[in-house]
Write the structure tokens for this entry.
Amino acid sequence: MDHLVQAEKLKLLYHQSFPAIFASLFTGILVCVLLWPVQQHSLLLGWYGVLLLSALARGLLFIRYWYVRPDDASVLSWEKPYFITLLASSLIWGIGAVVIIPAESLLHQVVVFLFLVGMAGGALGVYSAHRAMTLATIGCVLLPMSFWFLMQWQLIPLLLVLGTLLFLVTVFKAGAVLSVAMDRSFRLGHELEAARAAAEYRAHRDALTGLYNRRAFYELGEGMMSNAGEGLMAMIVADLDHFKRINDSWGHPAGDKVLQEVGEIYLGCLRNDDLCARLGGEEFGVLLRVDSLEQACAIAEDLRLCLENQGIDCDGEKLFVTASFGVAAGHEKLEALFRDADSALYRAKMDGRNRVECAHLH
């Protein structure tokens, strides 16, 4: 769960922080315009060039991320490059501001510092999904110039540093609250999704065998029939022979084990696109697309032989189980196809069991 929550946070960062690249570049232009009359132009252009390169690196990282579209299992590998490029951009602002401010103009120093405070405030909103990144970004942006102000030992710079410390304390506490709230939100979302998936699974799966249940068989089967078009669909209905004797002689746990093993045997003999379900009791159903009724009967015969020849371990002994099969194929509705297959199954039971009976093709 922690892995999924962290992945959600990182995906949110990649989703919401791309505009911050352009905000950084635009703010950099404003700072250069502000300092242009009082600072060397080459110094300002050099600083902005470095800022532009870092923005380009971050932009390429975002483009690469959107192109790859990593899933939850691999998205965390994108955290480190994101963190590195973000810290690089933040340090360019924090250290760069100390380099480009004019030493003799307190007014320009204060204005540039206010720009940095604004950048830090923006970081709180943009990167709040990841508390460590938020604190690291704000620290890289504000601390270099705060230390520089301390070294000046003047009243106004010291007051600004004091205000910065109060801001950092507020950010630290607010970040903790936001982080906990976001963690809880993401965690609750995943728990609800897991609960929904579990409920969906229980509603469509047989609890004993893990196969689809009767409800799911009809719901999915109707979809398969609708999508078949002119293709031929076949229904195989299988019923274990003398299953009551197994329960009476070996006990219900042994009967449950037999049903589980039979389900696994059937799945092992069928194709991935075939629909297999436990319809109830010892009855199983298979819906599949075939080229002919003969092919469907051959598949049913393969299922019969697989079951007949594969013993089931029960309390250290081999228990051999057989089943009777009814097969029908056609283009009619699912209910009619099942009715024909069930009638064929009845004939197989009446004619001695452990056999395949095929209905006429409709």
Notes: The CA atoms of residues 43 and 99 lie 8 Å apart. The beta strands are 232-240, 275-280, 283-290, 312-314, 317-319, 323-330, 356-358. DSSP finds twelve helices and seven strands in the chain.
